[in-house]
Amino acid sequence: MTLPYPKKKDPQKRTVVPTLPPAMRSRAALGLSVAAAEGRFALQHCGECGAVQYPPRDACHACLSHDLSWKDTKPYGKLLAETRIHASPDPYFRERLPWRMGSVQLKAGPVVLAHLVGVGRGDRVRVDLRLDRAGQGVMVALPEHRSDDMEDDPVLRAMGTHPKHRRVLISDATHPVTRPLIDALFAAGAAHVFAGVPEMWRRPHGLSALDGLENVSLLPLDVTDPQSLKEAASEIGGKVDILINTARHIRPGGVLGHDTTAARDEMEVNALGLMRLAQAFGPGMAGRTADGVNSAAAFVTILSAHALSPDPAYGAFNASQAAARSVAQTLRAEFAPSGLRMACVYTGPTEDEWHQPLPPPKVAPKALARAVVDGLQQGLEDIFCGDVARDLADRWRSDPGLLEREITGGGA
Amino acid sequence: MSVLDRLTGALAGGDVRVVDLTHRLDPDFPVIVLPPEFAQCARFRMEEVSAYDHRGPAWKWHNLTLNEHTGTHFDAPIHWVSGRDWPGGAVDEIPAEHLIGPVCVIDCSAGTAQDDDFELTPEIIAAWEAEHGPIPAGAWVLMRTDWSQRTGAEYLNMAEDGPHSPGPTPDAIRLLLERDIRGFGTECVGTDAGQGAHYDPPYPAHFLLHGAGKYGLQCLCNLDLLPPTGAVLIAPPLKIRGGTGSPLRVLALVPGGSQ
């Protein structure tokens, strides 16, 4: 199955208005969405009797203990039964009928209900926990051995953010990630890349890496300049299916000794810039999330993992990262009714002049590009790139207070 | 008939024309770019506060962000370390009568058309004086380069070894200070050459002029519309407390028919 490149739109037809699958979940069930947002397969495990359960509940189905925690679980099992749904009162599924679902006996214990892609009754399957268009975690049963073409399946395409055939805007082409990101996007099947260039008048560095690339257009775009955003959105706003915000202003320094001029530039670019970019392109993208094969799918922003808890050596920058993360979380809520996914890519220190004296490990531009495109292919919302970011996120999840003291209080 | 009556009559009748030497304040207009580890000059930014809408039904207005040295702007003596202790050296302290005065224009456009790093030298000033007479005390001296006709990346003309644009040599500035000028102005982003850091002293126009209590004007345009002598420059900066400079509207009064 290979997804053909879409024909040009019929301008006399109304653009399809996005509908969503059912979005309401209990607090317990939201745990599935948290895991799906990060691409993990997790289920509730009972701390007392060890039972693994699905669907999520407030107490253990075996011993009634409340000591339940979400743990990564082996996603393998066997498809017990399947059904093909031909009628549904739900507008989202009505538009996509027939729809196949089945029950999977997991080796970990429970039987789960899953959407089916490329598998039949009796098959050994691997179950993915993925975000659906409503932003909730759902099970998808796929063959144990995957192929790239599976991502073309209408079920996955409907819930995912895969770059294939999509047109991508990279907000700041001067970021060192740009060239490897463009290469990775094209390798994943992206149709076209627009790349914004701030301050053409200063002959910014980094553009020579883009010389001679096909299907790449540069355009003036500066996230601190509302006029440039308005002009760019007027020209290409209707063609941006994926937006990747790479605009970043970073200067080392804490808070006491750092001047507020640099801190203001960091806030302007990193936090307010994200807000302006979303205001310029977000509404147009949110209106196009059901617009066929190259529908709008995702708004991605790159953050420092220290948005979660600051490194005092970059205190002012990390304040802007925490602000940007907060802006992104609000955008996620605001995009939710349209099904447009707001993804945050958290990175450790990057390999560039602003982290030059730091020891490794540092995130190379190629690794960051890979993380962004992998995240888009899997439809993730929270992406952690590099060992530093993953480790920081793990420690932050387990105890934010402890992490703060480890970073700032001389923890060794 | 008083002098001012005659002036307003001449303005109305076209015997005196007003030439605007000011660039438009625009987000894309270049500002000076320093090495990235230094704090940077704010770009001109304009955000709508309201536009006859729910944010303010009957009015439109903007908040502006800019540096004292963004766009066509005035440099006061305290802008440079050499002028930091000059009494009355901030824009709010400069006497109003200093803000209007005679102007001499030295045309270097033939040289700058050939050489991006063209230098204004004492010899060029001497040749100009031989033709037009001595530069009078209290005059503004403007270096015409036609650089203002450049747009985009051609204006800063940034290369791997820094920007390349014309400016005065240290000795040229020393000669102008001997003439006791009021200030020195250029069409480029600064009064100094793009490569001015490599002179002794570095940035001689800034260092020597401001050290002597003189003023600077930069990012000027339309200097090709001024006569070599005989025009009057009107250049009042905003009255900012302790300000080191200010964006401003620079006007010149020129004799009618003069090109």
TrEMBL record, chain A:
Lineage: Bacteria, Pseudomonadati, Pseudomonadota, Alphaproteobacteria, Rhodobacterales
Source organism of this protein record: Lutimaribacter pacificus
Protein name from the UniProt record: Short-chain dehydrogenase
Domain ChsH2 rubredoxin-like zinc ribbon: 35-68
TM stretches of this protein: none
Database matches in Gene3D superfamilies: 6.10.30.10, NAD(P)-binding Rossmann-like Domain
Domain of life the protein comes from: Bacteria
PANTHER family: BLR3430 PROTEIN
Short name of any one Pfam family annotated for the protein: zf-ChsH2
Residue span, ChsH2 C-terminal OB-fold domain: 70-128
UniProtKB/TrEMBL annotation, chain B:
Recorded superkingdom: Bacteria
GO terms of molecular function: arylformamidase activity
Protein name: Kynurenine formamidase
UniProt-listed InterPro entries: KFase/CYL, KFase_sf
Entry's Gene Ontology BP terms: L-tryptophan catabolic process to kynurenine
PANTHER family: CYCLASE-LIKE PROTEIN 2
Pfam families the UniProt entry points to: Cyclase
